[in-house]
C-alpha cells in the first residue's frame, strides 16, 4: 500500500501537478461499501436464523457494485485528466501503477483476513 501511495505522491511532485492527489480518495473509499454490506448481510442472516434461501443477497451485491464503481473510477480519473491535457502521460501512468499496487494490496489483505468465524472483524 505504501508503494502505491508513494507512486501517487511522486506522480504529483515530479510533474508539479497536484490534481492526481484526488485519486487517493478512491483508494481509501473503495473497500468501505463492501465492508458495510457484508456486515449488514451478516446481521440479517443472524436475525433470520439462517433461513434465507440464496447464497448472496442484494445488499452484498450492491456493496460489491459500489466498490467496483470506485475501483474503476480510481483508474479512469487519471486517464480523464490525461485526455483533458491536465496531466502528462508519465504522471497518469505512475498514478495508474500506484492504483494497481494499492488495489492489489487491499485485495490480498481482504483475502488473507476474511475468515467468517471471527467475531470482532469488521
Automatic annotation (TrEMBL):
User: Which keywords are on file for this protein?
Assistant: Membrane, Transmembrane, Transmembrane helix
The protein's topology relative to the membrane is: Multi-pass membrane protein
Keyword Membrane in record: yes
Task: Give GO cellular component annotations, separated by semicolons.
Answer: endosome; membrane
List this protein's GO terms for biological process.
late endosome to vacuole transport via multivesicular body sorting pathway
Q: Which Pfam families match?
A: Vps55
Q: Where are the transmembrane segments?
A: 6-29, 90-110
Q: Which InterPro entries match?
A: Vps55/LEPROT
Q: Where in the cell is it found?
A: Membrane
Report the sequence similarity comment from the record: Belongs to the OB-RGRP/VPS55 family.
This chain belongs to which protein, by name?
Vacuolar protein sorting 55
Give the source species: Fonticula alba
Amino acid at each position: 500500500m505504501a508503494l502505491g501511495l508513494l507512486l501517487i505522491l511522486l506522480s504529483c511532485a515530479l510533474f508539479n501537478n497536484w490534481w492526481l492527489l484526488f485519486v487517493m480518495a478512491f483508494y481509501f473509499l473503495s473497500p468501505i461499501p463492501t465492508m458495510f454490506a457484508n456486515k449488514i448481510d451478516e446481521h440479517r442472516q443472524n436475525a433470520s436464523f439462517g433461513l434465507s434461501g440464496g447464497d448472496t443477497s442484494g445488499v452484498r451485491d450492491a456493496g460489491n457494485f459500489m466498490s467496483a464503481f470506485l475501483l474503476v473510477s480510481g483508474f479512469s480519473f487519471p486517464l480523464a485528466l490525461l485526455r483533458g491535457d491536465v496531466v502528462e502521460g508519465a504522471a497518469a501512468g505512475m498514478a495508474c501503477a500506484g492504483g494497481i499496487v494499492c488495489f492489489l494490496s487491499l485485495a490480498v489483505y481482504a483475502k488473507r483476513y476474511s475468515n467468517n468465524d471471527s467475531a470482532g472483524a469488521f
